[in-house]
Write a structure and sequence with these properties.
Elements lengths: L1 E10 L2 E11 L6 E5 L6 H8 L7 E6 L2 E2 L7 E5 L10 H12 L5 H14 L15 H13 L5 E5 L7 H18 L2 E5 L3 H7 L2 E5 L6 E6 L15 H18 L1
Parallel strand pairs: 3-8, 3-9, 6-7, 7-8
Antiparallel strand pairs: 1-2, 1-4, 4-5, 9-10
Helix pairs in contact: 2-3, 2-4, 3-4, 4-5, 6-7
Family: Belongs to the ABC transporter superfamily.
Pfam family, one: ABC_tran
GO molecular function: ATP binding; ATP hydrolysis activity
Length: about 250
Protein backbone atom coordinates (compact mmCIF):
# COMPACT_ATOMS: atom_id res chain seq x y z
CA UNK A 1 0.00 0.00 0.00
CA UNK A 2 2.87 2.43 0.81
CA UNK A 3 6.04 2.10 -1.26
CA UNK A 4 9.09 4.13 -0.14
CA UNK A 5 6.80 6.98 0.94
CA UNK A 6 8.19 10.22 2.34
CA UNK A 7 6.21 13.33 3.21
CA UNK A 8 7.48 16.83 3.97
CA UNK A 9 5.27 19.77 4.94
CA UNK A 10 6.08 23.44 4.50
CA UNK A 11 5.43 25.30 7.77
CA UNK A 12 6.15 29.03 7.98
CA UNK A 13 8.59 28.75 5.11
CA UNK A 14 10.47 25.84 6.67
CA UNK A 15 10.48 22.20 5.59
CA UNK A 16 9.06 19.82 8.19
CA UNK A 17 9.69 16.14 7.36
CA UNK A 18 6.88 13.93 8.66
CA UNK A 19 7.62 10.53 7.07
CA UNK A 20 10.75 9.01 5.57
CA UNK A 21 10.94 5.93 3.30
CA UNK A 22 7.91 4.14 4.72
CA UNK A 23 6.96 0.75 3.28
CA UNK A 24 3.72 -0.76 4.54
CA UNK A 25 1.67 -3.61 3.10
CA UNK A 26 -1.90 -4.09 4.34
CA UNK A 27 -3.65 -7.25 3.18
CA UNK A 28 -7.36 -7.11 2.40
CA UNK A 29 -9.56 -8.06 5.33
CA UNK A 30 -6.83 -7.57 7.95
CA UNK A 31 -6.48 -5.18 10.89
CA UNK A 32 -3.25 -3.16 11.09
CA UNK A 33 -2.44 -0.88 14.03
CA UNK A 34 0.08 1.98 13.84
CA UNK A 35 1.79 3.07 17.06
CA UNK A 36 4.55 5.59 17.69
CA UNK A 37 5.45 8.92 19.33
CA UNK A 38 3.27 11.97 18.79
CA UNK A 39 4.07 13.72 15.52
CA UNK A 40 5.71 10.71 13.86
CA UNK A 41 3.36 10.72 10.86
CA UNK A 42 0.82 8.03 11.76
CA UNK A 43 -2.14 10.25 10.91
CA UNK A 44 -0.33 11.39 7.78
CA UNK A 45 -0.39 7.78 6.57
CA UNK A 46 -4.18 7.69 6.96
CA UNK A 47 -4.60 11.01 5.20
CA UNK A 48 -2.57 9.86 2.22
CA UNK A 49 -4.49 6.57 1.94
CA UNK A 50 -7.67 8.67 2.01
CA UNK A 51 -6.29 10.81 -0.82
CA UNK A 52 -6.40 14.00 1.23
CA UNK A 53 -2.88 14.84 0.11
CA UNK A 54 -0.07 13.25 -1.89
CA UNK A 55 3.31 11.96 -0.72
CA UNK A 56 6.40 14.04 -1.42
CA UNK A 57 8.03 10.93 -2.87
CA UNK A 58 7.13 7.28 -3.27
CA UNK A 59 3.69 5.85 -4.02
CA UNK A 60 0.49 5.25 -2.08
CA UNK A 61 -1.39 2.38 -3.69
CA UNK A 62 -4.95 1.21 -3.16
CA UNK A 63 -6.16 -1.98 -4.81
CA UNK A 64 -3.11 -1.84 -7.06
CA UNK A 65 -3.73 1.73 -8.25
CA UNK A 66 -1.88 4.90 -7.26
CA UNK A 67 -4.04 7.16 -5.07
CA UNK A 68 -4.21 10.51 -6.88
CA UNK A 69 -7.50 11.92 -5.59
CA UNK A 70 -10.06 11.47 -2.83
CA UNK A 71 -10.43 7.75 -2.13
CA UNK A 72 -14.13 6.91 -1.95
CA UNK A 73 -13.42 3.28 -1.04
CA UNK A 74 -12.44 4.21 2.52
CA UNK A 75 -14.31 5.30 5.62
CA UNK A 76 -12.64 7.64 8.12
CA UNK A 77 -13.27 7.97 11.87
CA UNK A 78 -11.29 10.30 14.12
CA UNK A 79 -11.07 11.03 17.83
CA UNK A 80 -13.12 14.19 17.31
CA UNK A 81 -16.88 13.96 17.70
CA UNK A 82 -18.10 14.89 14.21
CA UNK A 83 -21.81 14.21 14.63
CA UNK A 84 -24.03 17.04 13.40
CA UNK A 85 -25.97 18.27 16.46
CA UNK A 86 -29.04 19.33 14.46
CA UNK A 87 -29.49 15.89 12.88
CA UNK A 88 -31.00 12.88 14.60
CA UNK A 89 -29.15 9.59 15.02
CA UNK A 90 -30.94 8.28 11.95
CA UNK A 91 -30.09 11.33 9.85
CA UNK A 92 -26.45 11.41 11.00
CA UNK A 93 -25.99 7.78 9.97
CA UNK A 94 -27.70 8.43 6.63
CA UNK A 95 -25.38 11.32 5.74
CA UNK A 96 -22.75 9.28 3.80
CA UNK A 97 -25.49 7.63 1.75
CA UNK A 98 -26.85 11.05 0.82
CA UNK A 99 -23.40 12.28 -0.19
CA UNK A 100 -21.66 9.21 -1.64
CA UNK A 101 -24.32 6.68 -2.62
CA UNK A 102 -26.95 8.60 -4.51
CA UNK A 103 -27.61 5.45 -6.51
CA UNK A 104 -29.49 4.05 -3.49
CA UNK A 105 -33.17 5.03 -3.45
CA UNK A 106 -34.82 6.52 -0.38
CA UNK A 107 -36.56 3.29 0.64
CA UNK A 108 -33.37 1.20 0.49
CA UNK A 109 -31.46 3.98 2.23
CA UNK A 110 -33.94 3.98 5.10
CA UNK A 111 -33.76 0.20 5.43
CA UNK A 112 -29.97 0.20 5.45
CA UNK A 113 -29.86 2.90 8.13
CA UNK A 114 -32.42 1.03 10.25
CA UNK A 115 -30.38 -2.16 9.96
CA UNK A 116 -27.23 -0.33 11.01
CA UNK A 117 -28.95 1.28 14.00
CA UNK A 118 -29.95 -2.17 15.21
CA UNK A 119 -26.54 -3.63 14.43
CA UNK A 120 -24.75 -1.15 16.71
CA UNK A 121 -27.26 -1.60 19.52
CA UNK A 122 -29.12 1.71 19.19
CA UNK A 123 -32.59 0.42 18.36
CA UNK A 124 -35.12 2.89 19.75
CA UNK A 125 -32.71 5.84 19.58
CA UNK A 126 -33.07 6.70 15.90
CA UNK A 127 -34.92 9.95 16.55
CA UNK A 128 -32.66 11.11 19.37
CA UNK A 129 -30.21 13.97 18.88
CA UNK A 130 -26.49 13.69 19.74
CA UNK A 131 -26.87 15.85 22.86
CA UNK A 132 -29.27 13.25 24.26
CA UNK A 133 -26.72 10.42 24.02
CA UNK A 134 -23.86 9.23 26.22
CA UNK A 135 -20.28 9.33 24.96
CA UNK A 136 -20.32 5.62 24.18
CA UNK A 137 -23.58 5.89 22.27
CA UNK A 138 -22.24 8.78 20.22
CA UNK A 139 -19.23 6.66 19.25
CA UNK A 140 -21.62 3.91 18.14
CA UNK A 141 -23.37 6.43 15.91
CA UNK A 142 -20.03 7.52 14.41
CA UNK A 143 -19.11 3.89 13.83
CA UNK A 144 -22.47 3.19 12.18
CA UNK A 145 -22.13 6.28 9.98
CA UNK A 146 -18.73 5.08 8.77
CA UNK A 147 -19.96 1.54 8.08
CA UNK A 148 -23.35 2.27 6.53
CA UNK A 149 -22.11 2.75 2.97
CA UNK A 150 -19.91 -0.37 3.31
CA UNK A 151 -16.45 1.00 2.58
CA UNK A 152 -13.80 -1.60 1.82
CA UNK A 153 -11.28 -0.04 4.19
CA UNK A 154 -11.70 1.77 7.51
CA UNK A 155 -9.20 4.45 8.56
CA UNK A 156 -9.43 5.08 12.31
CA UNK A 157 -7.39 7.77 14.08
CA UNK A 158 -7.55 7.21 17.86
CA UNK A 159 -11.36 6.93 17.69
CA UNK A 160 -11.84 5.78 21.30
CA UNK A 161 -9.21 7.91 23.06
CA UNK A 162 -11.81 10.11 24.78
CA UNK A 163 -13.72 7.17 26.33
CA UNK A 164 -13.16 5.74 29.79
CA UNK A 165 -11.42 2.36 30.07
CA UNK A 166 -14.60 0.33 30.48
CA UNK A 167 -16.40 1.89 27.53
CA UNK A 168 -13.26 1.63 25.42
CA UNK A 169 -13.21 -2.14 26.03
CA UNK A 170 -16.88 -2.35 25.02
CA UNK A 171 -16.17 -0.43 21.82
CA UNK A 172 -13.22 -2.69 21.02
CA UNK A 173 -15.61 -5.62 21.08
CA UNK A 174 -18.13 -3.79 18.91
CA UNK A 175 -15.48 -2.76 16.39
CA UNK A 176 -14.12 -6.28 16.02
CA UNK A 177 -17.61 -7.75 15.70
CA UNK A 178 -18.71 -5.28 13.03
CA UNK A 179 -15.51 -5.27 10.97
CA UNK A 180 -15.38 -9.07 10.95
CA UNK A 181 -19.03 -9.10 9.88
CA UNK A 182 -18.32 -6.74 6.98
CA UNK A 183 -14.89 -8.27 6.28
CA UNK A 184 -13.40 -4.79 6.24
CA UNK A 185 -9.74 -3.86 6.11
CA UNK A 186 -8.75 -1.59 9.02
CA UNK A 187 -5.81 0.76 9.57
CA UNK A 188 -5.97 1.98 13.17
CA UNK A 189 -3.80 4.69 14.78
CA UNK A 190 -3.31 4.56 18.55
CA UNK A 191 -0.84 5.49 21.29
CA UNK A 192 -2.04 2.55 23.40
CA UNK A 193 0.01 -0.63 22.87
CA UNK A 194 -2.55 -2.76 24.69
CA UNK A 195 -5.29 -1.44 22.40
CA UNK A 196 -3.16 -2.16 19.33
CA UNK A 197 -2.43 -5.74 20.39
CA UNK A 198 -6.05 -6.40 21.39
CA UNK A 199 -7.42 -5.33 18.02
CA UNK A 200 -4.79 -5.93 15.37
CA UNK A 201 -3.48 -8.73 13.22
CA UNK A 202 -0.28 -6.71 12.78
CA UNK A 203 1.28 -3.80 14.68
CA UNK A 204 3.70 -1.35 13.03
CA UNK A 205 5.92 0.65 15.40
CA UNK A 206 7.08 4.04 14.10
CA UNK A 207 10.22 5.97 15.04
CA UNK A 208 10.12 9.60 16.08
CA UNK A 209 9.90 12.32 13.42
CA UNK A 210 10.52 11.85 10.59
CA UNK A 211 8.56 8.65 11.03
CA UNK A 212 9.96 5.40 9.73
CA UNK A 213 8.66 1.92 10.44
CA UNK A 214 11.00 0.42 13.01
CA UNK A 215 9.25 -2.90 13.51
CA UNK A 216 6.25 -4.80 12.16
CA UNK A 217 4.93 -7.55 14.43
CA UNK A 218 2.22 -10.09 13.64
CA UNK A 219 -0.19 -10.75 16.52
CA UNK A 220 -0.84 -14.53 16.58
CA UNK A 221 -4.08 -14.47 18.56
CA UNK A 222 -7.06 -16.35 17.14
CA UNK A 223 -10.32 -14.64 16.24
CA UNK A 224 -12.95 -13.99 17.37
CA UNK A 225 -11.31 -12.28 20.34
CA UNK A 226 -12.72 -11.20 23.69
CA UNK A 227 -11.26 -7.70 24.22
CA UNK A 228 -11.20 -8.18 28.00
CA UNK A 229 -9.80 -11.71 28.18
CA UNK A 230 -7.20 -11.24 25.46
CA UNK A 231 -5.18 -8.93 27.70
CA UNK A 232 -4.61 -11.81 30.11
CA UNK A 233 -3.28 -14.11 27.40
CA UNK A 234 0.27 -15.20 28.25
CA UNK A 235 1.41 -14.47 24.69
CA UNK A 236 0.16 -10.88 24.92
CA UNK A 237 2.45 -9.97 27.81
CA UNK A 238 5.51 -11.02 25.85
CA UNK A 239 4.40 -9.20 22.71
CA UNK A 240 3.62 -6.04 24.65
CA UNK A 241 7.04 -6.10 26.32
CA UNK A 242 8.75 -6.58 22.94
CA UNK A 243 6.87 -3.69 21.34
CA UNK A 244 7.31 -1.44 24.38
CA UNK A 245 11.08 -1.95 24.32
CA UNK A 246 11.09 -0.70 20.71
CA UNK A 247 8.72 2.19 21.37
CA UNK A 248 10.40 3.35 24.58
CA UNK A 249 13.65 4.02 22.71
CA UNK A 250 11.75 6.52 20.53
CA UNK A 251 10.30 8.33 23.54
CA UNK A 252 13.62 9.02 25.27
Amino acid sequence: MLKHVSKTFEVNGKSMPALESVDLEVAAGTFTALVGPSGCGKSTVLNMVAGLFAPSSGEVLYDGHVVTRLNHQVGYMTQKDTLLPWRTVRDNIALPLEMKRRDINQKDRGERVADMIELVGLKGFGEHFPAQLSGGMRKRVQLARMLVYRPETLLMDEPFAALDAQMRTVMHGELMRLTELQRATVIFVTHDLAEAITLADKVAVFTGRPGRIKLQRDIPIARPRDPFKVRFDDAVAGIQEELWDQLREELQ
